[in-house]
Design a protein that fits this description.
The protein has about 120 residues and is mostly helical. It contains 4 helices and no strands. The longest helix has about 55 residues.
């Protein structure tokens, strides 16, 4: 047999063995990524089902919010503040346009929050 052909056949075999080893290593690494992505998908589905539940129960949740506001106004005010800041942070993390507050709007909102706090406290 021609030595050149034999050398090429051996090189081809080594390359195939190396490709198999790299493929199995890649599959091993991707298994961990796949489990993380599965967890993220489950969390996303759980979140969407929670949002759907909240949409279906909007009247009941509104009544509960009004009762909380009537019985515990300070606690309700703190909860609204935290939810608002959380919503702004969520928008900023998502990269929504206009996520940063306009300084003029921010100053008006801060004055309103100060007045509400003075009224409650």
């Amino acid at each position: 047999m021609n030595p050149r052909i034999l050398e090429l056949a051996l090189r081809k075999q080594r390359l195939q063995m190396r490709a198999d080893a790299e493929r199995s290593e890649l599959q091993r690494h991707l298994a961990t990524v796949d489990s993380v992505l599965d967890t993220a998908d489950r969390l996303r589905d759980h979140f969407h089902s929670g949002v759907q539940w909240a949409r279906e129960k909007a009247p009941m949740l509104s009544i509960a919010a009004l009762v909380l506001l009537a019985t515990r106004p300070r606690r309700a005010f703190r909860l609204v503040q935290r939810a608002w800041v959380g919503w702004l942070l969520w928008r900023r993390l998502r990269g929504a346009r206009g996520a940063a507050l306009n300084p003029a709007i921010a100053s008006v909102l801060l004055r309103l929050l100060g007045r509400l706090r003075a009224m409650l406290g």
